[in-house]
Amino acid sequence: MERLIMALHYGADAVYLAGTEFGMRAAAGNFDEDNMRRAVKTCHDKNVSVYVTCNTLPREYELARLPSYLEFLNGIGVDALIVADLGLISMAKKYAPDTKLHISTQLGIVNSETCKAVYDMGASRAVLARELSLAEIRDIRANCPKELELEAFVHGAMCVSFSGRCLLSNYLTDRDANRGECAQPCRWKYHLVEEKRPGEYFEITEDNKGTYILNSNDMCMIEHIPELIDAGVTSFKIEGRMKSSYYAAAVTNAYRHALDAAIENRPLPQVWIDEVEKISHRRYSTGFYFGYPGQYYSSTDSIYFAAADVCAIVESCDGEGN
Question: What predicted TM-score, i.e. pTM, was given to this entire model?
Answer without folding.
Answer: 0.82
